[in-house]
Amino acid sequence: MNDSSPASAASSGSVPAPVLDVWCELQCTDCRTALTDLHILRERFGDRLELRLRHFPLEKHRHSFAAAQAAEEAAEQGKGWEYVEAVLGRAEELDRRGEALLVEVAAGLGLDAEEFDTALIDGRHILIVDADQAEGKAIGVTGTPTYVIDGERLDGGKSQEGLRARIEEIADRLLAGQG
After folding, report:
1. Exposure pattern of 148-161 as b/e (b: 16+ CB <10 Å)?
2. Contact 63, 149 (CB under 8 A)
3. Whole-number pLDDT of residue 1
């Protein structure tokens, strides 16, 4: 999922921006904590680093698969990261309320809530979520958040300690090599 919200951007220059894949699950409170680092990275690198949400719903969270589909619908409607942040902010409530909360958050952001409800029923985004999850498993993602930049996997599910610094170090190296 990509959009032009404060947390993500694509490079508009001729050289593509390095990509930071963020494997996330919307019922994961560690992913909510990681948002602070993502905001700092976005402020520091702007369009020079593309932050890309990748879905990795965990079986232990019963609404995580629906939430991933809803995030894709939000991206289609132009507010992907904004939606992700809003849902992560209510992760505990999502556990209790499920899909009703997903539709409520969409309406609160001015998105077409009726279309959200329909998308969750017809499953139009299932293939994207399945593909992300399969790719994550293939590269060794076991929990969230997990970051991948320049082929290096950084597991934030155990600890966020030092991860932002490592991401900055790799991004700086990649950007220096573009010049």
Report:
1. bbeeeebbbbeebe
2. no
3. 67
Cα end-to-end span (Å), the chain = 28
pTM of the model: 0.88
Residue range 74-95: mean pLDDT, rounded: 96
Structure confidence at residue 40 (pLDDT):
95
Burial 50-81 (b: 16+ CB within 10 A, else e): bbebbbbbbeebebbbbbbbbbbbbbbbebbb
Summarize pLDDT for 92-110 with one digit per residue, the tens: 999 999 999 999 999 999 9
Which amino acid is it at 154? L
d(C-alpha 16, C-alpha 9), whole Å: 11
Residue whose entry in the numeric block shows the structure tokens 């593509």: 16
Query: What gap in Å lies between CA 94 and CA 87, rounded to an integer?
Result: 8
With contact defined as beta carbons under 8 Å apart, do 133 and 127 qualify? Answer: no
C-alpha dihedral, 76 to 43 to 37 to 128, nearest 10°? 20
Please tell me what DSSP assigns to residue 75: H
Phi, psi at 146, each rounded to 5°:
-130, 140
Sheet containing strand 146-149, edge to edge, reads 50-55, 19-24, 146-149, 152-155
pLDDT tens track for 44-67: 999 999 999 999 999 999 999 999
